[in-house]
């Protein structure tokens, strides 16, 4: 029966005083009389409390020897040093777990051991708890929050250091690549490239200076001649120039033609 003790049982025992009336238990644990009666019945079944009948007065509750032994054990373990299990509990609480049942299912630990751990963390200021409507919720304090985040960061840094050590201690199988000898390239024939460059320069000069450029014979490194680019450029056609005497005769002929045309017109009229 003792192994079935959970944190709610321990938390309620801490609030029961000698000869506490059953009717007042609900107010002590912030629960209704119905929830308080169920919790009191559970503690009676686990032999942690006993009822005394004070007829005609109310029924009183007293903690049994087993209950006092549980309280003493919890107080003794409350001064134990903080260890890995405490870190795991704080990390689960920081991840959103709120009830002892959630913590028990996640950590897979006995209810009594978990109850002693939560009570120890409560005494050391890492967590606090609240009993309401027959249930208990565990919350982190500011000290517990920073403790949980610090342990998480420390664990991550330790894992990173271990990974680096394993990587450094691994034997290196990849040897340094030996440089492979390179064969010197043979000189390439660039005569055609030089000729093309010369031709491109000639075309650029022709386009900028016009057709007045003199035809030149340009030789490249291989003594090959490149024809002048002006030979491929179309030349502008110029008409024959007329002399002054021919111009006068043309004008006279035009005037005679006009006179003949006027004469014909007068004859017709």
| CATH fold annotation of one domain | Arc Repressor Mutant, subunit A
Q: Would you state the CATH class of one domain?
A: Mainly Alpha
Strand order of the largest sheet: 1-3-2
Major sheet: 3 strands, antiparallel
Note the beta-strand portion.
5-15%
Note the run of SSEs as H and E.
HEHHEEHHHHEEHHEEH
Radius of gyration: 56 Å
The count of β-strands is 7
Structural class: mainly alpha
Can you tell me the CATH architecture of one domain? Orthogonal Bundle
Shape: rod-shaped
CATH superfamily of one domain: Winged helix-like DNA-binding domain superfamily/Winged helix DNA-binding domain
Task: Give the fraction of residues assigned to helices.
Answer: 40-55%
SS field, number of helical segments: 10
Mean pLDDT: 78
- Poorly predicted regions are 173-177, 210-227
What is the end-to-end distance?
A: 153 Å
